[in-house]
Design brief:
It is built from two helices and three strands, in the order βββαα. By secondary structure, the protein is α+β, with helices and mostly antiparallel strands. It binds zinc ion (ZN).
């Protein structure tokens, strides 16, 4: 679903929690590793779900219980995102 400019603040259905919310753009392959903001690398979830998703990514990147975050293999980020938005809300 393409969303640009003006439509960004419109409330829409969050695929994760199934609530009508203002959605936040998520970079599937992280921006900090050079992930692009194009339609192939972005997905939309509400802010609360986005926080949870970023937390899951952080925990997945922190291997061996250290604070250091390790870059995962690129397909893993898409897998995390797709698993996340398919999971039933709690
Ligand atoms: Zn949500």
């Amino acid at each position: 679903m393409a969303r640009k400019g003006k439509n960004r603040k419109r409330k829409e259905l969050c695929p994760r929690c199934q609530k009508i919310k203002v959605l936040t753009k998520h970079h599937i392959y992280p921006k900090r590793y050079g992930g692009h903001a194009n339609q192939y690398n972005t997905g939309y979830v509400c802010r609360e779900c986005h926080n949870k998703l970023e937390y899951i990514i952080m925990k997945t990147e922190q291997m061996y219980g250290t604070k250091r975050r390790y870059k995962l293999e690129k397909p893993r980020y898409r897998e995390i995102f797709e698993t996340f938005i398919q999971a039933p809300s709690l």
